[in-house]
Amino acid sequence: MKKVILGLMLWVILNQVVKGADNEVSYEQDWQSPEAIIMALYKTISAGSGEERDWTRFRALFFQGAQFTMALPSTQAGGLITSDVEKMIEQTEAYYKDTGFYEIESDQHVIKYNQMANVYSSFEIKKSLTDDKPLMRGLNHFQLLFDGKRWWIVSNTSIVSN
Question: pLDDT digits over 123-140, tens only?
Fold first, then answer.
């Protein structure tokens, strides 16, 4: 009986390891180019009311210690808000899980130099894809790093306006 239980536990553990490896492989296309990683970011951050976002996929886009800086229209402290990946996930879930949030790219410009890339990405924010007018518009400035195998998002600075 102990051998059966031990065998079953080993099967469950190995199955989870294989599933984890499968998930990582399924994201591999996300980091093959600067354009691909930015498209994956917009896909993972956007979802309708009550829809689940793939936060595992989102986390896999970012280099360890990646930072977000947002400049918002404000009279206090220059309107700068900074966060890390986990705080960004927490804020997105808190503010937009029940209402929906779509960040839709409208233009992109990529500047590459060796293993670095700067991506300037204009966007609109809508609560629903069917909204006629966006809530806000803005510009993302991404700094990316290529480690010889894949692209990573190192930082993102955004400015938004109404």
Answer: 999 999 999 999 999 999
Instruction: Work out the end-to-end distance of the chain between its first and last CA atoms, rounded to an integer number of angstroms.
Output: 66
d(CA 127, CA 122): 17
CA atoms within 13 A on the CB side of 150: 16
CA distances from 16 to 21, 22, 80, 141 (A): 9, 10, 41, 37
Prediction pTM value: 0.81
What does the alpha-carbon distance between residue 24 and residue 81 come to, in Å, rounded to a whole number?
31
Q: What is the pLDDT of residue 61?
A: 98
From residue 94, how far is each of 60, 89, 118 by CA, in Å? 21, 9, 29
Core vs surface per residue 78-108: b (16+ CB within 10 A) or e? eeeeeeebeebbeebeeebeeebbbbeeeeb
| C-alpha to C-alpha distance for 81 and 137, rounded to whole angstroms | 17
- Asked if 59 contacts 26 with a C-beta cutoff of 8 angstroms, the reply is no
